[in-house]
């Protein structure tokens, strides 16, 4: 696994400790309803003052969009296609490939017996320079195929991914990657490691390795991923929503936990922190709750939605949650805010 620079690693560790469990988070005040109508905002390029904890003024630079193109709907998800319970896993554990997506330190402290460890950095290029398009971005298909195969995943056997307290939705990130890689029978463990322990499942501290298998990815499936160029060309387009799922302090430009080159958010971005997509019982919110959450921000399934965070992990998790809730025109900006902020020619907003 490629190593990160010490400064980025420290910032990464600090933010993990600051962030509640992805599968055990409770809604925060950052979820307060915005009164901004998305389509009006994109057409007029300015909006009236929204509700508390939302930006005071949303602006989109003039002469936008530059070269608009339509976003195609991606594959939908359902509870059955996306999630398995701890009870189900106990009954079927011997028939699946288990992937623990938490950091190695947590895996070493105890994990579901038989699980291999592959945190988010396993699937991303951490060898590139921070602030560039390549840093933290997913590997090219040929490299990714080898890494997936090394976990014992052949695309035929069911894969169950899990994470837990201290995470950013790494399970959703891994699932998003597996879907793009053509693996339909991959799922997330609802409630994560905590749910497994509550169910009385076996726990081990022994490192487990699966036998490597052959796996290939001719090319990534379309409609899961957008890049910096696409956003730059489409920013300001009617009906396009840029959804920032970072913490409120990151969105407002008060902190740069990954030493991003600049602070703030993409112009016109709506803020809904990732933790608002799960409930305190360590599960996804119900579809109706997610729909209502987005409706408060005037986001509907007709909108094209680009989800972003710093380098794609939290954004991938929310992208899968949106697909699950019926928002099929949703894709992840994997290069993320760190890449956008790393280009001084691209506009940023710091409005609170």
What attributes characterize this protein structure?
globular; 352 residues; Oxidized Rhodanese, domain 1; 5-stranded parallel beta sheet; single chain; alpha/beta; 2 domains
Tell me about this structure.
The protein has 352 residues and is of the alpha/beta class. It has 2 domains: 27-74 and 223-341, Oxidized Rhodanese, domain 1; 79-204, Oxidized Rhodanese, domain 1 (3-Layer(aba) Sandwich). Helix content is 29%, strand content 12%. The chain contains 13 helices and 14 strands. It has a 5-stranded parallel sheet with strand order 1-6-5-2-4. A 5-stranded parallel sheet has the order 8-14-13-9-10. α7 (170-180) links the parallel β5 (159-162) and β6 (186-189). The radius of gyration is 19 Å and the shape is globular. The two termini are 38 Å apart.
Compact overview of the structure:
With 352 residues, the chain is α/β, with parallel strands linked by helices. It is built from 13 helices and 14 strands. It is 29% helix and 12% strand.
How far is it from the N-terminal to the C-terminal residue, by CA? 38 Å
Q: What is the radius of gyration? A: 19 Å
Largest sheet descriptor: 5 strands, parallel
Report the mean per-residue pLDDT as an integer: 85
